[in-house]
Input
Amino acid sequence: MRELQRAIIAEMGVRPEIDPATEITERVTFLQDYLRSAGARGFVLGISGGLDSTLAGRLAQLAVEGLRADGVDTEFVAVRLPYNVQQDEEDAQAALRFVAADEELTLGVGGAVDALARDVLAAQGEPLTDYTKGNTKARIRMTAQYALAGDRGLLVIGTDHGAESVTGFFTKFGDGGADVLPLYGLNKRQNRALLKHLGASEQLWAKAPTADLLDERPGQTDEAELGLDYDVIDDYLEGRDVPEQAAQKLEGLFLRSRHKRTTPATILDGWWR
Ligand SMILES: Nc1ncnc2c1ncn2[C@@H]1O[C@H](COP(=O)(O)OP(=O)(O)OC[C@H]2O[C@@H]([n+]3cccc(C(=O)O)c3)[C@H](O)[C@@H]2O)[C@@H](O)[C@H]1O
Ligand SMILES: Nc1ncnc2c1ncn2[C@@H]1O[C@H](COP(=O)(O)OP(=O)(O)OP(=O)(O)O)[C@@H](O)[C@H]1O
Ligand SMILES: [Mg+2]
Output
């Protein structure tokens, strides 16, 4: 195995083989234990229709149901955060039905994102690029979830996991901004396996991953933007050989995105020197 590959796998915590039933139990227990130790009232998570939030949402609902059976007063709030009309809204609705959250809310982020985009244009005389506006959508979604969490005493769930963390394919302080990460240590195909094991329909577990942040390319797949297939990223994280060009690309993305996987750089840190 490549030297850097070994170090990356250790940092991402991905294992080549998992037992989905065991993973589900351990991750639900993790959410329960963390909630108790934090003394919070429950969880909130944005449900996009993508497979990561469908899985994390179902784990959160199972966690609060288990706690309530033990007499703990707790709740899980699933929130739709569409930027205006989402082109795959029917998948998001199917995800909500499967997650079966205690409470469902819809908080459109179009108004806040567009207001900020107008203010940026007024301030600098240049509009936001579609790319940066996309990351702004993710950061406004984060702000919306913390607004709900603050007044209700909830923790914000994040969906980051090995196959996204490794390339830095998330928005810094956007979907990367969360309190607890129940999917960490899994790669993409393992997330899919857990979702299948939980009884999700093919519409949900087979859904092509998309950040869906761009006005100009709605529903663009992650694989098209990244230029890397999740199968290759997953193989790499399971310690398998992948084509040299793909390994180099992945490692380049990993090294360039180190700042996204740590706290803000200070004079006392050595990792960036
Ligand atoms: N070396 C460095 N040290 C410290 N900070 C550094 C830095 N380089 C940039 N930065 C900062 O980081 C910022 C760039 O980071 P960021 O805003 O995240 O932007 P960036 O990493 O360019 O973009 C995020 C990527 O993640 C993708 N994404 C986002 C959200 C969800 C999903 C998904 O899979 O669903 C995917 C998105 O499509 C895009 O390709 C810069 O504006 C700068 O402030
Ligand atoms: N339109 C949306 N509505 C609600 N939450 C959203 C929306 N878009 C993104 N999010 C939140 O941001 C997170 C990151 O998006 P990401 O695309 O990585 O995950 P996903 O959509 O759940 O799964 P996939 O990566 O397979 O598309 C989501 O898990 C979800 O919590
Ligand atoms: Mg998505």
